[in-house]
Amino acid sequence: PNPSLLILPGDGIGPEVMAEVRRIIDWFGANRDLAFDVSEGLVGGASYDAHGTPLTDETMAEAQEADAVLLGAVGGPQYDDLDFPVKPERGLLRLRKEMDLYANLRPAQCFDALADFSSLKRDVVAGLDLMIVRELTSGIYFGEPRGIMDDNEGGRVGINTQRYTTEEIRRVARSAFELARRRGNKVCSMEKANVMESGILWREEVQWVHDNEYPDVDLSHMYADAGAMQIVRWPKQFDVIVTDNLFGDLLSDAAAMLTGSLGMLPSASLGAPMANGRPKALYEPVHGSAPDIAGQGKANPIACILSFAMALRYSFDKGDEADRLEKAVEQVLADGVRTGDLIGEDGTKPVSTSGMGDAILAALDKG
Ligand code: NAI
Ligand code: MG
Question: Does 123 participate in catalysis according to the annotation?
Answer without folding.
Answer: no
